[in-house]
Amino acid sequence: MKNRTLAVAALALTAFALPVALAAQTAPLSPAAKLRNPAMLKEQAPATYKAKFDTSAGIFVIEVHRDWAPLGADRFYNLVKNGFYDDVRFFRVLDGFMAQFGMNGNAGITAAWRTQQLKDDPVKQSNKRGYVTFAHAGPNTRTTQLFINFQDNSSLDTQGFSPIGQVTQGMDVVDKLYSGYGRNNVPDQGRITTEGNAYLMKTYPKLDFVKKATIEP
User: What CATH number is given to the structural domain containing 63?
Assistant: First the structure.
């Protein structure tokens, strides 16, 4: 009788534990958890889409064309859709050249994407004023950083910088992004990688930043 009672109790515990385990398996991951797992963010972007950037300087909109640079367009779509650029600083803004951004303020998330390098897209558009392009450190090294051209920088075209889209609204906002730190006092990317926004907020407090980036419906 005692053994039978124990067996029934064990069955009851199993019956309770199974739905709990299943619920844990199917529970949606938090945005931060998804961003720490780049393999999950592989959705193909629409042929054309708009990304709205609400920043400390105002709002601008980037219209992305997948046929210009499909690998870059897909990467950007997934990053924006999953909140990667929220609270990200425009850490390198050079008057007469470009505004660069795309290093996440969370060091753990930045570390997860450092090795997620994209193969190059052929350069089909020129780096004209307002055009948006992934930064790189050589062939096949694009990850999450982009820049917006302040002027015609078509000299970059032969260096493999392939635009994915262009600012169609709010270029005047982009022009206002804080550039006062100049060319000789650019934040250290190594420290951004390891310390995130804590470093930037302490050492470069005037930098403009993205409040929220969203894919427009």
Answer: 2.40.100.10
Coil, strand or helix: which one is 73?
Answer: helix
**Residue labelled with tokens 């709010």:** 170
Question: Which residues partner with 212 through β-bridges?
Answer: 54
Rounded Cα–Cα distance for residues 169 and 146 (Å): 18
Query: pLDDT of 164-212, one tens digit each?
Result: 999 999 999 999 999 999 999 999 999 999 999 999 999 999 999 999 9
Same domain, 24 and 62: no
Question: What are 80's two structure tokens?
Answer: 């924006």
Q: By the 8 A CB rule, do 120 and 209 touch?
A: no
Band of residue 19 on the pLDDT scale cut at 50, 70, 90: low
The parent domain of residue 183 ranges over 34-215
**Measured distance CA(136)–CA(138) in Å, rounded:** 6
